[in-house]
Structures are given as C-alpha cells and as structure tokens.
Write a structure and sequence with these properties.
Length: about 230
C-alpha cells in the first residue's frame, strides 16, 4: 500500500507542475491566468504569448502524462498490488491507469498554483500515449478533423476525448479486432473521457450559445479554449 501511495503522489506532483504559470511568470512577469481566458492551458498561452510558447506548454503538459505512465509507474511498481485485481488487465497496466489519472487530476487541480490549473486534455493525451497509442492516434486524427472543419479547439478536444472509448468499441465489436483487456480499458477510457468533457463544461455552454471563439489567422482572435 505504501508503494501505491508513493506512485500516486509522485504522479499527482508531476501532473501539478504548472508549466504555463511558471513560463509566463519567469519570462514575462505575469500569471497567464490573469490574461486571455484566465485558464492555465496551452491554448491560452498560444493566444497570449504566441505559438512557440503554446506548443512548448502543450508538449510539456503531455509529457507529464507520459512520465506518469511510463516512468513513475515502472520506477516504483511493486509486483504485488495492494488489492485483488478482478480485471483481465495485468497488474502493471492497472498501475499505469492509476498513475495517469493522478497526473491528470494534478494538472487540473495543481497544488502549486492554488488548485487552479488547465483542463487536462494535453496531460490526458500523454497518459493515453503510454497506455494505448493506437487509440491515441485515432483521437488526434479526430481532433484535427474537427479543428479544421469548425475552427473550435474546444470542440476538437471534446470530440477527441469521446473518440477514444468509441474507437475501442468500434474496433472490438464491429471490426472484430483483438484488444487485450478490452472491457477494463473501455471502462477506464470512458471515465477519463467524461472527466475531460466535464472540465470543458464552460466551453460547451459557450458553444451552445454561439459565443465560443474560433481559431483565426489573427493572433488577437485565437480560440480561448485550453488544453
């Protein structure tokens, strides 16, 4: 149990590293949450500080999920789980899921910045890279399609989150692909997708009201939705 607590806390701490807040304070002298949409996500950094800073933050936030699932989980993993594994997943994959979820929670509620972080999409994406890279690739494709078609980062992020469990369902039930521990993974990914969609509830409201801003060629009119 102590080993489990260690990996969860470490994953949460890594997820809590407020990349955007640190970058904006160290290089520009202000908290990114005081500008633009007020969110600590990569898109707000992109809008306020430019595309180079935005890309850096998004990649850094994604790496937090990758590190939690591929490094922390392995470094502190004990072969014996502190609970009985009723799932068909191997024990290490269960640890990866727990560590990845802890990193996403840390990103959304960061202990280093007043528990007010980003919306978890980039860190969630990094977690999925470590656990299920095929479905992650599908989600990226869905994101790009919706972003190109509608110019809303928020809509692309929401649809990408939803597409992950849907791609599993389609592959397994319609295409008859063999997916190791399908039932466990589909329930886990559905939970993560619902959490990420919930974190975009304000954006969903703006989309319904028609007040959500789109990505445009003008820097001053860049989408206000965060990753």
């Amino acid at each position: 149990m102590i080993n489990m607590v260690i990996v969860v806390l470490l994953s949460y701490i890594v997820g809590s590293i407020p990349t955007s807040v640190m970058l904006s304070k160290w290089r520009h002298g202000f908290d990114i949450r005081s500008k633009g949409s007020g969110n600590a996500g990569g898109t707000n950094v992109f809008r306020v500080l430019g595309w180079k800073s935005g890309v850096f933050v998004i990649i850094s936030d994604a790496l937090k999920g990758v590190i939690a699932t591929t490094v922390i989980a392995r470094l502190f993993w004990d072969p014996t789980l502190p609970f009985y594994n009723h799932t068909p997943f191997d024990d290490f994959t269960i640890i990866q899921m727990i560590c990845g979820a802890a990193a996403v929670i840390g990103h959304v509620w960061t202990m280093f910045a007043g528990f007010k972080g980003g919306k978890g999409i980039a860190t969630g994406a990094g977690m999925l890279i470590g656990i299920a890279p095929t479905e992650f690739a599908v989600s990226i494709g869905v994101f790009l399609i919706f972003l190109y078609a509608f110019r809303y980062v928020s809509l692309g992020s929401i649809m990408a989150a939803a597409s992950f469990p849907l791609s599993l369902i389609i592959r397994y039930n319609i295409l008859s692909d063999e997916i190791h521990s399908y039932k466990t993974l589909v329930f886990f990914s559905t939970g993560i997708a619902l959490f990420l969609i919930y974190s975009h509830r304000a954006n969903i409201k703006r989309l319904i009201e028609g007040t959500e801003r789109k990505i445009t060629s003008s820097k001053s009119k860049t989408d206000s939705v965060e990753s």
